[in-house]
Amino acid sequence: MNRIRLLIPAALAVTFALPAHADNHTVSQVKKSFSVPVVKAKVGDTIEFRNDDDFAHNVFSLSDAQSFDLGSYKKGEVRSVKLAKEGVIEVECAIHPDMKMKIEVKK
Amino acid sequence: MPARTSTRRFSLPLVLLFCLLIIGAAVANESDPWLRPLSAPAPADNQPTDARVALGEMLFFDPRLSRKANMSCASCHNPSLGWSDGLRTATGFDMQTLARATPTIINAAFNPIQMWDGRKGTLEEQALGPIEAGGEMNMPLPEMVTRLKTIHGYAPKFEQAYPGQGISEVTVARAIASYERTVLSTESPFDRWRKGDAKAVSDSAKRGFDLFTGKANCAICHMGYNFTDNGFHNIGVKDSAEDVGRFAQKPLKSMRGAFKTPTLRDIALTGPYMRNGAYVTLMEVVEHYDRGGDDKSNLDINMTPLNLSAVEKADLVAFMESLTGAPREVRVPVLPR
User: Considering only CB atoms, which residues of chain A are within 8 Å of chain B?
Assistant: First the structure.
């Protein structure tokens, strides 16, 4: 009984610490542009970047909010990043620096 | 009188046909991604005027912008050598040999990012870079401004170009950028072919264009009217010492050894080729791509061996040579004293 008493608050803490539900957002890289200039998302969501061009793209961010490098990949391939904390993440393609977009992450 | 009436009847359809052809040609030019726009874009705060271009021309050719007053922008960006220097890599301050080739400034006005590693954005930002770089003109910018102020002939030129703004780092950069925006490629045989002159280029060049946009896969980077994606790629050029290239600006794995895709406009005038002048001829360049590059330690994933035949290689060279127009006339200015 004592163990159950201990577990209930722990389970509640975990439940409330997690977001209600995590969403997937898909961004296409097409015609040397990201398909949207801004994605509004929340912590725990996943952003999928799909290359729809006939040549390779890269996806990275060196933002303070979250930095990542998904590498370079060819047409049809999808790579994703999970959003770890709130803030504004500036995303670019390293190969084509005129390709830029933002992810606005809220709690 | 009857004869006059007859002329009118005959001329109207012809006039209409002529108008349609003109409109058709204009639409075709606008919609052809391989044809260069007639003019280069300029920032709102530095729209070109005759006075600005003339001042920029003087500054571009003036060696007094360098510490020892012996190098001008034109020393490396020499209009007689395709606005480059004809060397494998540049010669800088005190005749030292630099690590990278001098890029041509032809059509740099269309580039949204400047330098082999993209460390400068606009032409205005770029213009001051080599002046103050220790290995190049090695001139501290405050000293450059002071020196220009002692050359009395410059003050009225700056006043005419940038009224009330005086001689400053900003106005020097803006004037040089204004001049550089006039350094544009001229109409090439390739352009005339695209506009409908079937005889403007050889059959070999036409086949070369098909290879360029097809089997040889060149156009995935050398795309559009300026034949560049304004992007950065490691194409596996051999080096005696590693040059990390774009990685110094963007510390990402794919950027190690990556450099900006250069224009191919006026390519026959701008050799040696590659960012370290590795190749003297365009055939050597084609051979490089046919091998799929040499240094494969961090190769761009677009790079693969092409398995081109000897004829196909020659066709690609013929096509690239067709991108060179008649050199534009260049005036060497008399400098203020």
Answer: 32, 54-56, 58, 60, 62, 69, 71-74, 94-98
